[in-house]
Specification:
Layout lengths: L3 H8 L5 E2 L13 H14 L3 E4 L11 H15 L5 E5 L3 H13 L4 E4 L9 H13 L5 E5 L7 H8 L4 E6 L4 H13 L6 E4 L8 H5 L5 E4 L6 H13 L2 H19 L5 H12 L16 H20 L2
Parallel strand pairs: 1-2, 1-8, 2-3, 3-4, 4-5, 5-6, 6-7, 7-8
Helix pairs in contact: 2-3, 3-4, 4-5, 6-7, 9-10, 10-12, 11-12
Length: 313
């Protein structure tokens, strides 16, 4: 079953899905003014939804109190223009706590992050997500990655669970994903949502579109929304020339740079936001900042990406 408000608003996205970074001040505390500005700029740039305090937003590094404050700030900054989906994770008890905090803060839905550390069986994972969905009125998107790899049969069970509305795939097995989509469809669930949740998802989105998966997360949107929006439009309209130009000239080199450091999927994105003029602070430990030469390469890559947009005009 789906919760119509969120599912309907996400089913045909008008723009990229925005996963904002969480801003910190010089003292290391959350900087809500910078965070609200970051979220507001993303919405104004064309984001179709805001996924607050998720992977790019350093969910793992936030206290419950900071989490609730940030989700509330994101809701305030969007002013109802787009839905706000908040992260929820760790073990079942804590995931339920975060879900209720998000609900109190005004979020429109939840992205259920993988449970902390343990590698559970399908029965345990199914119970975990069902208990989370039963504990809140918010619709839930299950995030498959790392220690959570779901069989098609398990996803069918989830798709028939009240308030679980979608699956975000950060695992990247296209054969498994195709079998999952087919199994859910064959089980009579036509409105279940699927998301490409791989890091720098634009690089793999042409392949995911072949499976019928049109939704994807865009961390790049955090610091070069104009590039992310151009890629999204090209993918949606079938403009393969633009997609290839951006993949070859920007996204693939960015992924090459991202892979040069552990945790760069977050810290490099946050550095990009700073390079574009908004001081959102550094990442919190255990993540670390990119090396100096990598920052220079990122700055050059941003310039190259903008030049590619001009070439296509």
């Amino acid at each position: 079953m789906t919760s119509a408000p969120l599912a309907a608003r996400l089913s045909i996205p008008s723009g990229p899905l925005f996963f904002p970074v969480t801003a910190y001040g010089p003292d290391g505390a959350v900087d809500l003014d910078a965070y609200r500005l970051h979220v507001r700029r993303g919405v104004e740039a064309g984001a179709a939804a805001v996924f607050a305090c998720c992977g790019t937003g350093e969910f793992h590094a936030l206290t419950p109190e900071e989490f609730e404050t940030c989700v509330r700030a994101a809701v305030e900054a969007t002013e109802g223009r787009v839905p706000v989906v908040a992260g929820a994770g760790y073990g079942t008890a804590l995931a339920v706590r975060y879900a209720r905090l998000a609900e109190d803060a005004g979020a429109d839905g939840l992205l259920a992050m993988p449970p902390y550390l343990v590698k559970a069986g399908q029965e345990g994972l199914l119970r975990h997500y069902r208990e989370l969905a039963a504990a809140t009125l918010l619709p839930v998107i299950v995030y498959q990655r790392d220690n959570v790899v779901l069989t098609p049969a398990t996803v069918v069970e989830l798709a028939h669970t009240e308030r679980i509305v979608g699956l975000k795939d950060g695992y990247g097995d296209l054969d498994l994903m195709q079998r999952t989509v087919s199994a859910v469809r064959s089980a009579g669930v036509e409105d279940f949502l699927y998301f490409n949740g791989l890091p720098t998802a634009e690089l793999t989105q042409p392949a995911y579109r072949g499976l019928g998966v049109t939704l994807y997360s865009s961390a790049v949107f955090c610091f070069v929304p104009e590039i992310a929006l151009a890629c999204h439009t090209a993918l949606r309209t079938g403009d393969e020339t633009t997609v290839r130009r951006l993949v070859d000239g920007f996204y693939r080199p960015f992924v090459d740079l991202r892979d040069k450091g552990q945790g760069y999927a977050v810290s490099l994105v946050k550095a990009g936001v700073r390079l574009r003029g908004l001081d959102v602070g550094e990442v919190r430990p255990p993540l670390h900042e990119p090396a100096g030469d990598h920052l220079k390469q990122l700055a050059q890559l941003i310039e190259r990406g903008q030049a590619l947009l001009e070439e296509g005009m």
